[in-house]
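User: Can you model how manganese (II) ion sits in this protein?
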Amino acid sequence: MMENVEKRRRGRPRKNPVESSSVQPTATKRGRGRPRKNTSSAPVKNISDLIYETTNVWDSTNFDKEKIFAFSEGYKDFLNKAKTEREFIKESIALAKKKGFVNLDEMGDRKLNPGDKVYRVVKGKMMLLSVIGKKPAQEGTRILGAHVDSPRIDIKQNPLYESTGMAFFKTHYYGGIKKYQWVAIPLALHGVVVKADGTVVEVNIGENENDPVFTITDLLPHLAKDQYEKKLNEAFQGEHMNALLGAIPYGNKDEKDRFKKNILSLLHDNYGIVEEDLISSELELVPAFKARDVGFDRSMIGAYGHDDRVCAYPALMAILETENPEYTAICYLTDKEEIGSVGNTGAESRALENFIADLCALTTEGQYSDRLLRVALERSKMLSADVNAALDPNYEGTHDKMNAGYLNKGIAIMKFSGTRGKSGASDANAEFLGEVRKLFNDNKIPWHITELGAVDKGGGGTIAMMIANLGVDVIDVGVPVLSMHSPFEIASKADIYAVYKGYCAFVK
Ligand code: MN
Ligand code: MN
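Assistant: Here's the modeled complex, given as structure tokens:
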């Protein structure tokens, strides 16, 4: 059955263009002719075999608790080193090199052979890794796509000011945050400052135990009468989210702006930068705390940036461990997902097409043409590796329990995203969902079907839609997370390991 689908899909775009425009009758005919699961070979032994049931990963005999915990240790370690997109890519390059991956852009036009491992970095914030398959790239690729940016508090381009004897950075939040969660917590400053002569200064303050941290203050409850009466989305204003930097004055008391000047003096001493250099900077405030085990049983990890490192890390591990795959395997780590996948480091860019074009050119026997790329894309399949909103029993009514993501039920498969009537959704084809379901079942990996939340309760999207637009079969497959987009997101160690096993099976 699966082979038929494969053949049909591979042949569809070129051999028989008429067929794609007559999907409806074809599908109906196929549906009637296809034997149903329990009427074909094996007769039904037990009526309960007909019911869709999910498995708790901790109950699964295929999932060893020690392996689950060991994988989580590696993940926590990585999380602590990679809190920003730039840091994630930097760590990924180091791991890839160790595993024998070579920078595609330093190889010239040397042909690639099955089993070769290559990578490309885009602007230090996006990365593509590939293990060349036994079949040439134009036969289609298997892509794991995740994003490595997370919601955070960015520093404005002209940020420094003083008020009432204190110095502050003005900020502009990045991604969908609930602002009240980001006040009165320790924040670390990560990023780069590009100086007037073009040199790049890396900044990382607040991660070492002995480092100072920064914070955005909140009002004491005693004087919060007016604040309490405001709506949640009005009580915390973006322009009031200013980060506290210091309170020692510079020079004598006649000096003007001496609290601001003291910060500039320290920045100059430590980094050799002047105020104008901050204009060409990307400085991000992120929670200063480390990833921690959560619960008496240590079954969960609480950390900043699970979205989407909890999928990006397993995807990265899966590609790093891939050897001689049938189809060319790709891991696509993108930036800017949290603000709509925009720009030349986001999934809306041409980076994936360019990369696959190069793989086609470097694996084809004949002359490269654009057609090879187009065909490769239409024959490719991708798991959009992104987090899922786990049902939170503290907030009843946000999910349809029959179609919700849950902690510990393993991989969360989400057929479609979007809002209201699936508006703006990426909606995977049933055939591809069937294929993915079969893959996980065959590999005995627990999974469950999910929606982002109850109908009309909100919505969202992932990079799935951008890649689906290229002709690739895409479906969202990831880890359910509690407190998503908060400074301290929660994920189950069992789910993280299940997702890792699922990604491995997909690219194998
Ligand atoms: Mn995400
Ligand atoms: Mn997100």
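A couple of observations from the model: Residues 307, 338, 485 surround manganese (II) ion (ligand 2) (CB under 6 Å). The chain has 14 helices and 23 strands.
User: Helpful, thanks.
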